[in-house]
């Protein structure tokens, strides 16, 4: 069974129009793969389900554990929304809860360290479904409490899932079609990199990817293919050398 892990960020999932592009990428890959889709919370503040919007609903007096539970709802809603729309398209899809996903951490609610991973839950679902959708950024402690992997941690989640499943590559989709020498949204003379090493990526001024994701990929020699949700461009590959 060939598997691909595809991660989509909040701006890619913001509304029905942007999600249509996401589904095109997923459907294209279903020709030859089962797909694990890792999702962030939908949109950005002040969008209704964005992480910062959810945080604004809670009191500053909430404990760190309670805040982790509050923000986890964004990824949970996103996973269920994506799963629902895929089902309506006739695709065999399911959404995993964080307790089923197989990433287990310590009890640091804001920047948890991964202690162990268990791929059995995802692999079992992939035997019966073509797409498994799971929220990124959020995990579960070995004591059964909701934890988070740090802001932007969905990239890291995607790398963890790819490694957990024994893959050599993870695809991460954003609203920009790769890594540029400067922001292409502000400068139309920006130049896109086709390939970067892990260290080159870590030294970039623009934080396109979560550092934990890149460091984990470097340690495990996992290729990161950074692509644009709204483009068919080949994007940027981040790998050991070129």
Automatic annotation (TrEMBL):
GO CC list: cytosol
GO molecular function, one term: aspartate kinase activity
Protein's UniProt name: aspartate kinase
Record InterPro entries: AceGlu_kinase-like_sf (IPR036393), Asp/Glu/Uridylate_kinase (IPR001048), Aspartate_kinase_CS (IPR018042)
Keywords, comma-separated and alphabetical: ATP-binding, Kinase, Nucleotide-binding, Transferase
Family from the record: Belongs to the aspartokinase family.
Enzyme Commission code: 2.7.2.4
Residue stretches making up the Aspartate/glutamate/uridylate kinase domain: 3-222
GO biological process: homoserine biosynthetic process; lysine biosynthetic process via diaminopimelate
PROSITE patterns: ASPARTOKINASE
Chemical reaction(s) catalysed: L-aspartate + ATP = 4-phospho-L-aspartate + ADP
């Amino acid at each position: 069974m060939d598997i691909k892990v595809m991660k989509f960020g909040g701006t890619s999932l913001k509304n029905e129009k942007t999600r249509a592009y996401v589904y095109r990428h997923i459907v294209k890959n279903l020709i030859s793969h089962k797909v694990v889709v890792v999702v962030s919370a939908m949109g950005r503040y002040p969008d209704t389900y964005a992480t910062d919007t959810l945080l604004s609903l809670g009191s500053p007096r909430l404990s760190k554990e309670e805040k982790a539970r509050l923000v986890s709802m964004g990824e949970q809603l996103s996973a269920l929304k994506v799963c629902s729309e895929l089902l309506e398209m006739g695709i065999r899809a399911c959404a995993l809860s964080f307790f089923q996903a197989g990433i287990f951490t310590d009890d640091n609610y804001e920047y948890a360290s991964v202690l162990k991973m268990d791929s059995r839950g995802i692999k079992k679902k992939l035997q019966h479904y073509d797409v498994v959708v799971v929220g990124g950024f959020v995990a579960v402690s070995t004591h059964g409490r909701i934890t988070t992997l740090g802001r932007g941690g969905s990239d890291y989640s995607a790398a963890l899932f790819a490694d957990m499943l024994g893959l050599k590559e993870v695809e991460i989709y954003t609203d920009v079609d790769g890594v540029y020498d400067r922001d292409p949204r502000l400068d139309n003379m920006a130049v896109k990199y086709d390939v970067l090493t892990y260290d080159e990526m870590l030294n970039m001024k623009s934080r396109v990817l979560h550092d934990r994701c890149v460091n984990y990929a470097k340690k495990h020699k996992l290729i990161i293919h950074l692509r644009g949700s709204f483009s068919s461009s080949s994007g940027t590959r981040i790998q050991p050398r070129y």
